[in-house]
Design goal:
Blueprint (H helix, E strand, L loop, with lengths): L2 H6 E7 L3 H11 L6 E5 L6 H5 L5 E4 L5 H10 L5 E4 L4 E3 L1 H11 L8 E8 L4 H17 L8 E4 H6 L10 H9 L4 E10 L2 H6 L3 H14 L4 H9 L7
Helix pairs in contact: 10-11
């Protein structure tokens, strides 16, 4: 394990009913990272039991508000850098080198980085959606939370961290980071496809865009959250 990774980076993962994916995620991450914090939102499945099998710090909240979970996790971080990941995210091997390179540059102290995204399923829909995500991230500088967020704790605190939102907390923090301060790393996070398979590969992106539009227009966040989660099997 690399000393730079171990001494400077802490992983923060919010979970809620994530038993189907969290075991694989932690099995891979704990082989690379020494500092991993999981904040669970009162899961009703085996999520916490699975997390306790690994060398992680596990905290539990009374609800599954992801913004609050992420903020609690960040408060427990004592390293200079934080990498926020979802419970169904797998880092490619090349991502480790990209992380080391990014955090080793002093000019990135007040910038943030995310990854490209691809899915664990191989089909035309997954391929095309991955390309759309890459286009959106590159040209609109609007990566979502499932692409991870690598940020120094100093910069995170300076911009006020995540808002206490159950959804769109990832969009809000990117706006606060600032488009000019976002770098898309040249490596991938592999994410689980269940949300897209269950709701439909064409329908799920439409729902995401619809929810984003409602948020930008100032609609009630609880209503948006209900729309988003209606056909989603566990949003973390």
């Amino acid at each position: 394990m690399d000393d730079i990774i171990n001494n400077k980076v802490t992983i923060v993962i919010p979970t809620y009913n994530s038993e189907r994916t969290i075991n694989n995620t932690l099995n891979i991450l704990t082989k690379i990272f020494k500092n991993i914090i999981v904040v669970d939102g009162q899961s009703k499945d085996l999520t916490r039991k699975i997390c306790n099998k690994y060398n992680t710090k596990l905290f539990t909240l009374k609800n599954n508000n992801r913004g609050i979970q992420l903020n609690l996790g960040s408060e427990k971080v004592f390293t200079n850098w934080i990498l926020f990941l979802h419970a169904d995210s797998i880092l490619e091997n090349t991502a480790i080198e990209e992380i080391e390179k990014f955090i080793s540059s002093d000019e990135n102290k007040y910038k943030a980085a995310t990854f490209k995204l691809k899915f664990d399923q191989v089909n035309i829909y997954a391929f095309l959606l991955s390309k759309v995500v890459t286009f959106r991230s590159k040209y609109f500088k609007l990566p979502y939370g499932d692409q991870g967020l690598l940020i120094s704790k100093a910069f995170y605190n300076k911009i006020g961290g995540y808002k206490n939102l159950p959804i769109m907390e990832d969009v809000e923090i990117i706006r606060n980071v600032g488009f000019r301060n976002i770098k898309i790393l040249n490596s991938y996070i592999i994410t689980d496809s269940i949300r897209y398979k269950s709701a439909g590969w064409l329908i799920r992106p439409f729902i995401n865009l619809y929810c984003l539009t409602l948020y930008l227009l100032g609609f009630n966040i609880e209503i948006i959250n209900k729309i988003y989660t209606r056909k989603t099997y566990g949003k973390n």
